[in-house]
Amino acid sequence: MKILVTGAKGFVGKNLCAALKNIKDGKDRRFPDLAIEDVYEYDIDTDPALLDTFCKDAGFVFNLAGVNRPQNQEEFMQGNFGFASTLLDTLKKHGNKCPVMLSSSQQASLTGRFGNSEYGRSKKAGEDLFLEYGKETGAEVHVYRFPNLFGKWCRPNYNSAVATFCNAFANDLPFTVNDPSVELELLYIDDLVDEMIDIMQGKGHRCEFEGLEVVPGPLGKYRYCPITHKVTLGEIVELLKSFAEQPKTLMIPEIPAGSFAKKLYSTYLSYLPASKVAFPLKMNVDDRGSFTELVHTLNAGQVSINISNRGLRRVSTGITPSGSSLSLWLVMD
Fold first, then answer.
1. pTM, two decimal places
2. Does the annotation count 265 as an active-site position?
């Protein structure tokens, strides 16, 4: 299968293309039945003539192209609706009825605080265009209304508070939190990409929307990713503070598998400059030798290195009775 990704250099596009190429090259074996022949990457600086070739050959299209921060309001409709029209018209030109996916936004609900959103209106127009295209051609259409996204390669100071905070803590930059109690619904990029790959295999999740609320259902005309996290700005900042203090405290944060903390920690690490990837450790030295603590945890003990001077006998190596500490002893005989 040949796959076309528009908006390929954006946050979602970059992560999706990387995942698709890993599958194509046999580096991701979670999808053994998914054969990818090529990944066509299309973005604002791509030769427009290539869109014709890509639309002719594609077996699946992910339309992630869009405008988030234009110079003027009119660019919302031009970028989010205008290009969608061009894309679908090009597919029609070649009689290509392959499945197509559209990235939309919660703002397309045009409810609550989004009731007067020009961005939301442009996204809603794109949704209607894609859904009508599906009725007209019989092509499978998958429309996602994304909540707040976060993860590696997300652009700080743009459209993600999480990216802004991660970048600030990683690079010692100032930031402002006006109201720590504000709650966000957050979707991790790796979870979203897995969901998008699932729909290529006839899987994934469907829903309808009641305002901003997802209503799951097998016949829903929209798509959604069921793995999201509701977290306050204050909780995000406190977690990032603990991550940033790790070189001083040597404390490994509590990051259970699948937790928001684990996903936030992975995101935070992606913003660290090279100068902070490694940090010095304190070696405590006396006439017996040295003791250096590498890391410790809240509930799982510590890891340390102990070096005994020549002539001293080895004292211990192993785990404490509670099963919490590991020490490595090197005896100089």
1. 0.83
2. no
